[in-house]
């Protein structure tokens, strides 16, 4: 006995996050702001001789490119959401974009570290007052962009089931954009610290040292994003994801047992599942669907029911 309703009529496979449109609009806004600030910081850093400021400006340029990846991914996923050639929709395109952005973030960390090392070996004069002023402006802009890209929806999605599926609701595309902006804010903070200390003590080496510290922190963020988005692309179920256990608890009653179960993420807040159930007294598929109705994360479900042997 299989789920015949799957073949009765066509059904949509739109598994975009519920904040997809909002996140897309905010990403485009942040791209415009980041690009403008990028030009200001590169110019000011070159004129005033601050490596931290130049590094901040140049890696803002690569962040702008990464943010463009995020924005285009949102746009493509939205426009092609109804394209049946995408078997399970375009919801996971955000994971793909997030993975690509994470790789760019790793490259940025390496470039910042290398350029800062070069400045440690060959220090240059710095116009501290002007550089500090531009760095402060950059920090304000970055914090504003981070506020725009914050995931204020959190993990409270008004689901009625008792368990949380934090990883399932995470939008890795938005997270990637947020981390790029947060990396900008971090380098601005470190630049300000280095410039203030350098202006008071004359320690020119503080500026490139802060660049190295920033590169290490950004590399760590990059690895976390590569790991999480890569897991999503490979349909990995995180250790703290309890959805498979919820399904088993709901189905395995009255002698029914699951002999094959596959659960994967279709998009932010959406999961798919295929179940093979063995029962001495098989029920109609609608009965098993009713048992799972309280799990709102299940957006696509296929059920097979057989007798033992």
Automatic annotation (TrEMBL):
Record-linked InterPro entries: Cation_efflux, Cation_efflux_TM, Cation_efflux_TMD_sf, Msc2-like
Annotated gene: dmeF
Domain Cation efflux protein transmembrane: 28-234
Pfam families: Cation_efflux (PF01545)
GO cellular component, one term: membrane
SUPFAM superfamilies for this protein: Cation efflux protein transmembrane domain-like
Protein name listed in UniProt: CDF family Co(II)/Ni(II) efflux transporter DmeF
A biological process term (GO) from this entry: intracellular zinc ion homeostasis
Segment forming the signal sequence: none
Keywords assigned by UniProt, alphabetized: Ion transport, Membrane, Plasmid, Transmembrane, Transmembrane helix, Transport
Lineage: superkingdom: Bacteria
Gene3D superfamilies xrefs: Cation efflux protein transmembrane domain (1.20.1510.10)
Membrane protein topology class: Multi-pass membrane protein
Compartment list: Membrane
Transmembrane intervals: 28-52, 58-76, 96-114, 126-149, 177-197, 203-223
Gene Ontology molecular-function annotations: zinc ion transmembrane transporter activity
UniProt entry tagged with the keyword Transmembrane helix: yes
């Amino acid at each position: 006995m299989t789920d015949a309703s799957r073949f009765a009529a066509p059904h949509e496979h739109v598994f975009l996050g519920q904040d997809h449109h909002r996140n897309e609009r905010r990403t485009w806004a942040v791209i415009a702001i980041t690009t403008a600030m990028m030009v200001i910081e590169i110019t000011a850093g070159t004129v005033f001789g601050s490596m931290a400021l130049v590094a901040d400006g140049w890696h803002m340029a690569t962040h702008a490119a990464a943010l463009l990846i995020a924005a285009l991914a949102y746009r493509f996923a939205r426009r092609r959401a109804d394209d049946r050639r995408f078997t399970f929709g375009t919801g996971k395109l955000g994971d793909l974009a997030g993975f690509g952005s994470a790789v760019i973030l790793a490259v940025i960390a390496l470039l910042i570290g290398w350029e800062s090392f070069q400045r440690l070996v060959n220090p240059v004069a710095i116009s501290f007052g002007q550089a500090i002023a531009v760095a402060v402006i950059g920090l304000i802009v970055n914090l504003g962009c981070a506020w725009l890209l914050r995931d204020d929806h959190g993990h409270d999605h008004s689901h009625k089931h008792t368990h949380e599926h934090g990883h399932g609701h995470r939008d890795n595309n938005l997270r990637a954009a947020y981390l790029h902006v947060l990396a900008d804010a971090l380098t601005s903070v470190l630049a300000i610290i280095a410039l203030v200390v350098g202006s008071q003590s004359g320690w020119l080496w503080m500026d490139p040292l802060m660049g190295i510290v920033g590169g290490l922190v950004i590399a760590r963020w990059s690895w976390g994003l590569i790991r999480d988005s890569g897991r999503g692309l490979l349909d990995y179920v995180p250790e703290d994801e309890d959805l498979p256990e919820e399904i088993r608890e709901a189905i395995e009653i009255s002698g029914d047992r699951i002999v094959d179960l596959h659960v994967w993420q279709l998009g932010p807040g959406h999961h798919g599942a295929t179940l093979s159930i063995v029962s001495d007294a098989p029920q109609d598929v609608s009965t098993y669907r009713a048992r799972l109705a309280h799990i709102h994360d299940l957006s696509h479900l296929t059920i097979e029911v057989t007798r033992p042997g």
